[in-house]
Amino acid sequence: MASMEKFKEKLASLRAESDAANARADELEAKVKQLEAEHTSKDHEILSLQIRVKNLEEQAEKVETALRNTTQNFNEADLKAEDNERKNAKLEQDLADKEKQYEEIVEKFNASKAELEELSRQFEDL
User: Which residues fall in a coiled-coil region (predicted)?
Assistant: First the structure.
C-alpha cells in the first residue's frame, strides 16, 4: 500500500511538473508571438526607413545636380561679366582717345581759323 501511495505522490508530482512545464511552454509561446510581432513591426519600420533614405538620396542627388548647374551658370555669368567689363573698359578708353582726338582737331581748327582770319585781315590791308 505504501508503494501505491508513493506511486500516487509520484504521479501527482509528475502532473505538477507537467502542469508547470505546460504553463512555462504557454508563457514562452506567448513571448515568441510577442517577439515575432515586434520583429514584424521592426521589419516594417526598417522598410519605411529604407524608403525614406532612398527618397532623401534621390532628393540630395537632385539638389546636387541643381547646385552643379547653378554653379556652372554662375561661372558662365561671371566670365561674361568679366568679358563685358573688359569690353566696357576698352570702349571707355576708345571714347577717351576719340575725345582727345576731337579736342586736338578743334584746337587745330581754331588755330587754322585764327590763322585764316589773320591772313584775311592782312589781305584786306593790302
Answer: 4-126
